[in-house]
Write a structure and sequence with these properties.
Number of helices: 5
Bound molecules: zinc ion
Order of helices and strands: EHEEEEHEEHHH
Shape: globular
Mean pLDDT: 82
Largest sheet: 5 strands, mixed
Number of strands: 7
Oligomer: single chain
Radius of gyration: 17 Å
Length: 213
């Protein structure tokens, strides 16, 4: 007997914002789709007329973040967030675009900071980084995972070097998260996953509520 599972379709609807150009959106969706494809998830841009009625639909918006001074100035962790209410993730991802750009532009590619590369290449890399950020937030949503995992896509703090790297191997789901996804997908819920009771490891001291990661 052969079991076939149809892919879970996740559609992304991007907020209209000049910073999220079509080129960046396309590169981001391609990257997020490549990360999730091995796990039976088909990440797409939303169709104009809502053609994928069976899909899980997530919105993507840019949110400005106050940059904290002090020891966290070199903070490289959270470029995206998704809101949890009573343990349930909302289908709305935010990207801290300006903070992301600021750090990504300093990333060295062949010893040259990204900001010094031709604009087309820089845009492509920014799309890749956003795609990896989106893939992580999609993971919070699909896995119903409020905390973070020790490794893989759902680790808390990938470095900028990892986010720009041509190799996306560091953004695969860990074995534990693959098992969790299988349970959630099969309808068993995530409650048996050990990580469900993990404390949230988000380092951000604010805002007090609601919780995000
Ligand atoms: Zn996270």
């Amino acid at each position: 007997m052969m079991l076939t599972l149809s892919a879970v379709v996740v559609t992304l609807t991007f907020q209209s914002d000049p910073r999220l150009s079509q080129v960046i959106q396309t590169a981001a969706v391609v990257e997020a789709a490549a990360i999730w494809a091995p796990y039976g998830v088909d990440v797409r841009s939303a169709a104009p007329c809502g053609l994928f009625d069976d899909s899980t639909s997530l919105t993507v918006a840019i949110e400005d973040e106050v940059v904290r001074p002090g020891p966290d100035a070199r903070y490289t962790g959270t470029f995206g967030a998704i809101r949890f209410t009573n343990g349930v993730p909302a289908p709305a991802i935010v990207v801290f675009y300006d903070a992301m750009i600021r750090l990504t532009d300093t990333a060295l590619l062949r010893d040259t900071p990204l900001i010094a590369w031709p604009n087309a290449f820089r845009t492509f890399i920014l799309g890749r980084v956003i795609g990896r950020v989106l893939a992580h937030e999609i993971g919070h949503f699909l896995l119903q995972l409020h905390g973070h995992s020790a490794g893989g896509l759902m680790r808390a703090q990938p470095s900028v070097a990892e986010l720009v790297d041509a190799n996306r191997g560091r953004f695969a789901l860990s074995a534990a998260d693959q098992a969790r996804w299988a349970r959630v997908r099969d309808g068993g819920g995530a409650s048996t996953a050990a990580s469900a009771t993990r404390a949230d490891t988000v380092r951000r001291p604010e805002p007090p509520a609601p919780r995000r990661d």
